[in-house]
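S1.2 Input.
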Amino acid sequence: MTRLNRRHLLAGAGAATATAAIGLQLEVPRARAAAPPAGRQAPAFYRTKVGDFEVTQVADGARTFPMPQGFVRNVPREQALAAAGAAYMPAGMVTVPFNPVVINTGSKLVLIDAGFGPGAGAPVGHLQANLAAAGIDPRAIDIVVLSHLHPDHTNGIKDASGGLAFPTAEIKVPSADWTFWMSDENQAKAQDNAMMKGYFANVRQTFAGLADRVVRYDWDREVGPGITALDTSGHTPGHSSFAVSSGSGRMLVQSDVTNIPEFFLRNPEWHVAYDVDPEKAVRTRRRFYDMAAAEKTLISGFHFSFPSLGYVEKDGTNYRLVPVRWTPSL
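S1.3 Output.
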């Protein structure tokens, strides 16, 4: 075994100096990249098993934008920005991912939430491309279940031509949300609130001509085999989450119980601007996360960072998210 000593190091340094001197007299070829940069991400889908069910998380994209005043209604913007900074989001910005989920029950292929759809802008609207990468044919989807009627969950039910993106699927919406957003009286009350006014208009546009195809569902009932709708209202009047059960396997699809876990799971008392009833949303978060933490149940979060799966633990009076570890096998 050769031992390095000062003599070896000095000899090596001398040889390097001599080589450098010779190199000055030679034409040294330029280094070339083996290939041009790809400039885009790989397709984003991730599979896991829940009992006998195969669950595929499918990314629709993510948006990073300057945090607006009032994004968190009941704390100063500086405090919310500090939470974003602690999560290593770009300075002054907030990042929101969007991740629908497909559940193959063996008898039905169920899509929960449909993403933004085409025309929403480059950072989002990738559901169809990522479904194709995952080998999932939109025509094979049997049921599209919408957790609530905000545009990032509903607009993907239509394609670029205005036709149905999942042409053979049954479309299911929460009864309470359909009643709320289709109410002319509620729409009239929202005319002074730009965000709510836009939401009402979007619901009417997205579901134009589809009333006869839409099936309304109620809480505590199955929306697909082994998939039960849960009352997690507050974010919207009919906001729903889902308990997925197969054999001894169980998962909770939380939809928008929290919009950004680094904010509203860590600080469940914070009010996000998108909540219709923020106080009820706080009560829902605590009830839902207390249950999930006690049962140590796997959670799929629409706005969790991809692959949008994790566990929730109590952390004093608040909570923390423990993301799943990526695994190559099912």
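S1.4 Remarks. The radius of gyration is 25 Å.
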